[in-house]
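Dock nicotinate mononucleotide; give full complex structure.
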Amino acid sequence: MLFSIPKLDKEIGKEVSAYVDQLTKPVGSLGRLEKLAIELAEMTGNKFPDVSPPGVLVFAADHGVAKEGVSAFPPEVTAQMVWNFVQGGAAINAFSRQIGALFAVVDVGVAAPIEHKDVIAKKVRYGTNNFCETEAMSSAEAEQALIVGYEQAKEIIDKGARTLIVGEMGIGNTTTASAILTAVSGKPIEQLVGRGTGISEEKLAHKASVIRRALSLHQPDPSKPMELLSKIGGLEIAAMAGAMLAAAERRVPILLDGFICTVAALVAKLFAPAVADYMIAGHRSSEMGHQVALELLGKEPLIDLNMRLGEGSGAAVAFPLLIFATAMVKEMATFASARISNSVEGEEKQ
Ligand SMILES: O=C(O)c1ccc[n+]([C@@H]2O[C@H](COP(=O)([O-])O)[C@@H](O)[C@H]2O)c1
Ligand SMILES: Cc1cc2nc[nH]c2cc1C
């Protein structure tokens, strides 16, 4: 599949960088917010971009590998949480309300039928196969799930979303994400497999052995994203990658969530390396392996609050920092406009 992602506007970045140095503060004193303002300008091609409203897309799907007992919760929870999302009772609902987000939940492959007018029904199949035994899905299904994400992102951007937050819900999906990350990074599995929803030490060792077994069965080519998705999964990870690709094509900044989201970002990057230019890492999840995924992507997260929920929640909590970065450029006075003396002459500016 071919994606056409525009280059970052480095010229505007330089302009904003020079302008930020004229604002009424010592050079560099707003730290990471300054870098963020420059990045947002380069992505959007706008010196004074709007990041609001953000669009939050939560993709839900089930994982056949959940049968192996790799989660602290049963697979029915995926469907149950989808109902919670449409009733507005999940963390991401509370946070989306706080940040004024456009919000949508997409069933891309929940194992149970879900009929609710507010759930976007895009089920590609009823959950994946157990990837320890056989391929998670066909490559046609993986492609279909990717397109679901792509189309949904297009839609929410057409409705006005200026930043994209991509969340997920899928019992078992930390096993799937760790398997993809093991294949892609080539690092020892022990560094990449974590507690997910909160499994015991014993279950953790079992989870690692499940992934080891699956990878020796499939031996996926780590440079082929469609192969990774079809052999390992999952449907929501494919959709998330598709959504990111659509946002990057439209110069809409992507605010990444936690572990599963960052692995989906790595998959998207395999489809089109330039997609990573449009990504900002929202937070560092406490899930083992997230730091490695962030390093592979070359991103430093904005916040670290020991969160490990998913759903887009970490990105939603980090989102106000994007508002602050843009408000700084839009609203602050310059030394000249406020008639403030700009440093002692000859003093080194850092
Ligand atoms: O985003 C994260 O970093 C994250 C870390 C651990 C768990 N989760 C969420 O928990 C679910 C997967 O956990 P598990 O144990 O069932 O693999 C899934 O619905 C994710 O949204 C999410
Ligand atoms: C309750 C619950 C909520 C979640 N949200 C994202 N993943 C989740 C997993 C569980 C178990």
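Observed: The chain has two domains: 10-49+328-349, 54-318.
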